[in-house]
Amino acid sequence: MSDAFIHFDKVSKAFGIVTVVDNLDLSIGRGEFVSMLGPSGSGKTTLLMMLAGFENPTSGAISVGGKRVDALPPHKRNMGVVFQNYALFPHMSVADNVAFPLKMRGASRSEIVERVTKALDMVQLSAFHERKPIQLSGGQQQRVALARALVFEPEVVLMDEPLGALDKKLREQMQMDIRDIHHRLGLTIVFVTHDQTEALTMSDRIAIFNHGKIEQIGRPSEIYDRPKTQFVAEFIGETNLLGGKVASSSNGVLNVILDGGQPISVASATTQEPGKHVKVSVRPERIELDSPGDGQNELKVRVTDIVYHGDHLQVLVDSGHRSFVVKATRKAVAPQVGQEIIASFSPEQCWIVS
Amino acid sequence: MKTLPVSKAVFGTAVVIFLMAPLFAILPLAFTDSIFLNYPIPGFSFRWFHELFTANAWRWSILNSLVIGCGTTILATVLGTIAALGLRGNSASLFFSFFRTAFLLPMVVPAVVLGVGMQLMFAQYGLANTYVGVIIAHTVIAIPFVVVNVTAALQGIDRRLENAAASLGASPAVVLQQVTLPLAMPGIVSGAVFAFATSLDEVVLTLFVAGPNQRTVARQMFSTIRENISPAIAAAAFLFIVGTVVIAGLVLLAQKKTQRA
Amino acid sequence: MTRQPRLSKRITSFALIAPLALFLAFFFVAPLVTMMKTAVSDPVASIALPTVSAALDGWDREGAPPVEAQQALANDIRNVSNDELFGDLVRRLNSAKSGFRTLMTKTRNAVIEDANLNDLVSVDRRWSDPGFWVAVQDAAGASLTDRNLLAAVDLQRDANGDIIDAPEGTSANRTTLFRTMIMAGIVTLCCIAVGLPFAMVAASTTGWKRQLLLGAVLLPLWTSLLVRTAAWYIILQDNGLINLTLQTLGLTNGPVPLIFNRLGVVIAMTHVLLPFMVLPIFSVLIGIPKNLMPAAASLGAHPIRAFLLVLLPLSLRGVVSGALLVFMSALGYYITPALIGGAKDQMISSVIAYYATGAANWGMAGALGIVLLAATMILYVVYLRLSSEEVRT
After folding, report:
1. CATH label of the domain that carries residue B120
2. Are the CB atoms for A309 and A265 separated by under 8 Å?
3. pLDDT band at A101 (very low <50, low <70, confident <90, very high)
4. Count of CB pairs separated by less than 8 Å, A with B
5. How far apart are CA A158 and CA A181, in angstroms?
6. Is residue B116 within 8 angstroms of chain C, CB to CB?
7. Domain check: are C205 and C132 in the same one?
8. Within the 8-67 window of chain A, which residues sit less than 8 Å (CB to CB) from chain C?
9. Choosing among A15, A54, A56, which should be mutated to test the C contact, i.e. which has the most C CBs within 10 A?
10. Do A81 and B163 touch (CB under 8 A)?
């Protein structure tokens, strides 16, 4: 990323002897929407708090627009922050909440009124400007928080699990709204979440955090379809991990003997030493049941259980050596428990994880 | 098992009567027209309230109590609030825990012990028999109430609110003034009320450090009970109880209001 | 550089607590230290008699003291121009050996009358008794003393400096301390007897009933201590409400003595301190899951067994906290015993107040103050220990 707008350079953060962020490098381009995804305690929120200025890095540098910001106090960083649980000032009205950053910047009365009105219009809350936050629903409070973080037109907006407290419907609506605002205003957004669907649907790029490090960063499709590590594969979506040993590798294809003895082919850009133990990841929805095609990997399996999910069936199968999960569409003829069947997937639909 | 609720009710009522009876027993005597502080009351009059506001000893003591109470309230609230702000967010530090505990000690040390020490020391520094001396003495024992109340209020404030204000461009001083203090106000107000009440009711330290010119209502009541018990004390008690109920009501109301807002 | 913000935050915090810390150091810690110092300091004789100590150096403490010593003492006494200081000196010497009161007055008059008089034995034969000189030497040479501390627990030093019991009847401090403990203990037991079941009743009800029960506890807590004491005075006095009722009902002929005795003090103090017992127990009880008793019942425990085995042990922590608070407060109580109690019900605080304001014997007031302070602080530390454990578990 040559046009890095926000840049973390070897940033570490330790609380006492616990290292929460570990020598981390990350660049974010101007206008990019980057999600930080990971289990709790993986360092994603701490990284965001360091960017906002609420925590100081133990070592390393953070710069925005080419300028070091890590010595700046939060009130001089000019970033909009949307907090978990909104952090609206309970003793101020909605309008006063939204006007707060403008007052801090010494805007004139008329300008404040104009911009607050515009911001509340944007989140469709003009009618509520005199209310106190506690008189609003969760979704409305969330929109006030958003208006407050955007009203002073910051270039960077940081969001810390902003939708976590909303119910599913409202959350999906807000996801659309935030995406829309991102495109319209050309904002740079750093978004912390533990909800993978949210990250996949909203982001330009996703950074997967684990133990204070970024396991993988990339476009949502890269993350989902080509996870580099077992952690990423298991954290995003569901996956089957098949253990095996490399037999040979040629022309971007690895021949792997699974632990059960069955040979399969795996498309791989890198070559691996023959005899090396590897793990092959296959997404449940990439496996077809009973429709073998040319050049496909085929495994003979027995159906052990079928779970009805409405739009699809989750089929548990056993290859004799290990069991795995297949997501079967409703179009196919439903298999029966106990049935012997061929499970197949193409070499391109599976990959080696480390 | 049916008898249990009955005995429970009887016991509960008995204790409530034990707790409340003294307060109700003293109230009617404020309106007696007799010079004796006992029942039955021969006739009703306001003569003892009249006495309270006209007799020099009482009038001065009321004035003294108000002056000393206000001085104590201001000093204790300012010192206690500032200290509570300093203690905040340092709960893990042993150094600050020491001070947190130390600030509560005046509540624990017996008043007579503190009184002896203050009398000795205040005499050396010319503080004995002065208003300043009495205000300082009262402030010492009022401080813990302010620290406890304000600390509790500060603990109730979500740090993210202050972080939010900072991220929106507010400097630390502005965050304090616009967010922290307004949100801690109910605790500061209850601390101030407790400080005032403590000063109003304080006898022992007053006995040791105050001169005849700083005689407070509580001090006057103490000697009235001890020397020449008169129904004026019931009139004073009446004002105390009514005042307590009114102030408690106001504090509760203020807290409800801020909760709702 | 990145460490700086945290350090500056610490400095800000420290700057914020500094004013209160200084205030309390000056007006809370310093008075207590002054009191303790007064209890152990013994400067009167050395101030009033500045030269005699040096003159007595080398004296064998048995025979007659050297002539120079007699001269020095005569000069010293002559130079005490301050009557107050002289009074303190006499009191100090008299407490070491009786007889000084008349001896010193007589001697002072004599040496002032005759500015050249140096032979003290000619003034009074007692000056030939080495015992008086030993007392003078000890008093004039000392600046620290354990006399007050020993006297606070009815001990003294004999002529050899060994610690012995004070003679019968000279002091009653031990009795007072013992009585204070007994009274505080009785009040604590009364508070448990009333407070524990009351807190359980309050915790078992809900809605307005609980509000009423708690309100009844809180209202007295908010009301002036003097008002409450005055109220008990009205109820307990010989023609008070209780005696009036008893006599109207014909249950007694004369008034039952309820005031100016121990019963009255215990009743009034229980009333005053009951909230400190009820509130800790109540807060422990409402923290106990509601379904614990039904759970015990479902496991086959009879309600009384369930109470004894489940609820009581769980509420014990609250009882201990409350008992410590009540006992600690009761130890240092002054106002209620002073107003409701009789002469024989005075607790240690009253004795301290008497020494300080009545007898102007600061040393004794301070020494008894140290005893009370130490007892209170020990109890408080135990209480803190207990409540910090509560947080941890």
Report:
1. 1.10.3720.10
2. no
3. very high
4. 76
5. 14
6. yes
7. no
8. 56-59
9. A56
10. yes
pTM (2 d.p.): 0.82
User: Residues C280, C382: one domain?
Assistant: yes
Do C123 and C238 belong together in one domain?
no
Matching residue, tokens 């021969």: B42
pLDDT tens-digit series, residues C250-306: 888 878 888 888 889 999 999 999 999 999 999 888 887 777 777 777 777 777 777
Predicted local confidence at residue B114, as pLDDT? 95
Burial bucket for residue B167 (CB in 10 Å: 0-12, 13-18, 19+) = buried
Nearest to A59 among C2, C5, C6 (CB): C2
- Domain assignment present for residue B165? The answer is no
Query: Which residue range forms the structural domain that includes residue B250?
Result: 61-158+188-260
Residue of chain A with shortest Cα separation from B257: A91
Nearest CA in chain C to A58: C2
Provide the domain count of chain B. Answer: 1
Are C129 and C273 members of one domain? no
User: Mind spelling out the 3-state secondary structure of C344-384?
Assistant: HHCCHHHHHHHHHHHCCCHHHHHHHHHHHHHHHHHHHHHHH
Q: How far apart are alpha carbons A267 and A331 in whole angstroms?
A: 28
**Residue in A18, A46, A49, A54 to test binding to B, most B beta-carbons within 10 Å:** A54
All chains having 3 or more CB pairs closer than 8 angstroms to chain C: A, B
Instruction: Please report, as a single letter, which amino acid is at residue C102.
Output: T
Which DSSP state fits A286? G
Residues of A numbered 73-102 whose beta carbons fall under 8 angstroms of chain C's beta carbons: which are they? 73
Distance, in Å, from the CA atom of C330 to the CA atom of C187, rounded to the nearest integer, reads: 7
Can you give the residue range of the structural domain that contains C216? 173-392
Nearest CA in chain C to A70: C2
Do C118 and C234 fall into the same domain? Answer: no
Domains and CATH numbers, chain A: 4-234 (3.40.50.300), 238-353 (2.40.50.100)
Q: How far apart are CA B186 and CA B206, in angstroms?
A: 29
CA torsion C336-C339-C341-C342 (nearest 10°) is: 160
Q: With left for phi above 0 and alpha for psi between -120 and 50, is residue A60 left, alpha or beta?
A: left
Q: What is the pLDDT of residues B145-169, one digit of tens each?
A: 999 999 999 998 998 999 999 999 9
Q: Which residues contact B211 (CB under 8 A, 6 or more apart)?
A: B128, B129, B130
Q: Using a CB-CB distance cutoff of 8 angstroms, which residues of chain B are in contact with residue A80?
A: 167-168
Q: Check whether residue C117 and residue C219 sit in a common domain.
A: no
* Same domain assignment for residues C49 and C198: no
With respect to residue B71, please indicate whether it lies within any of the assigned structural domains: yes
Does any CB of chain C come closer than 8 Å to the CB of residue B231? no
What does the pLDDT average to over B120-146?
Answer: 94
Residue B23 and residue C228 in contact, taking contact as beta carbons nearer than 8 Å: yes
User: What dihedral do alpha carbons C164, C165, C171, C176 form, nearest 10°?
Assistant: 120
Q: Is the ipTM of this complex over 0.85?
A: yes
Q: Which has more confidence, A329 or B58? A: B58
Buried b (16+ CB within 10 A) or exposed e, C100-118: beebbeebbebbeeeeebe
Counting the structural domains of chain C, the total is 2
